[in-house]
Amino acid sequence: MHLSSAISLLLSASLTFATPTPTIEERQTDCSPAGISADDAATVVSKFKSSGVVPTLIPAINPKVKVNVAYGNKKVNLGNKFRTAETLTQPKLSFSAEEGYDPATTKYSYFLVDPDVPNPDAGALRMTYLHWAVHDAQPSCITNQKPVTDTIYQALTPASTQQHRYTFLVYRQPAGYQPDAVDLATLQLRPGFDVNRYAADNGLTLVGGNFLREAITNTK
């Protein structure tokens, strides 16, 4: 072997061993800023509690990601009001990367649930209704993601003059999560969907949420 070739091989080997495997934090560089600010997280918690989404729909929320939802140019903002005509088509939902989790390999499920059917004051007759369910979603910075729709979006058409709290919830999936036949049947039923039981049965961890209010009398 020529001396020059030997030197080239040694340099190549040195460079290979000198380059460490990227850590989770380094792989998240393209997804920064990850997580959600302390102020934004506190606002989510406050709005979910003051609106009664906590504990009516979910027992608690500890946001780890910022959840963005928009119908056209109008953004969902923790309880702002929408008209029925504004929510007839599927919105765009995205969320930030979660700190401590590789956005390239960590996947999430999200649900849109109405906890106020037929109206918020129906007492024992009140039930939840599933409007949308998706799994294998990833943070918005992952451009080649392939989310799977389990329950197609159903337009928000409350038949009540009282405000329905349509709630978007994002959950981190455990490794290898895949809805089975029973899960898919549950998601297709829609009325009476228990998001807390479904999450517990499937090892899903709540990491963020957002919600809007809508009634048939809303004019703006």
Word description of this protein:
By secondary structure, this protein is α+β, with helices and mostly antiparallel strands. The chain has a single domain, classed as Alpha-Beta Complex (Phosphatidylethanolamine-binding Protein). The chain has 6 helices and 9 strands; from the N terminus they run ααααββββββββααβ. It has a 6-stranded mixed beta sheet. It has a 3-stranded antiparallel beta sheet with strand order 2-1-4, with no helix packed on it. A hairpin with a 2-residue loop joins strand 1 and strand 2 (about 75). The radius of gyration is 22 Å and the shape is globular. The N and C termini lie far apart (about 80 Å).
Give a short synopsis of this structure.
By secondary structure, the protein is α+β, with helices and mostly antiparallel strands. It has helices at residues 3-18, 24-27, 38-50, 53-56, 181-189, 195-202; strands spanning 67-71, 74-75, 80-82, 92-95, 108-117, 127-137, 148-151, 164-172, 205-214.
Labels describing this entry:
alpha+beta; 220 residues; six-stranded mixed sheet; 26% strand; single chain; Phosphatidylethanolamine-binding Protein; three-stranded antiparallel sheet
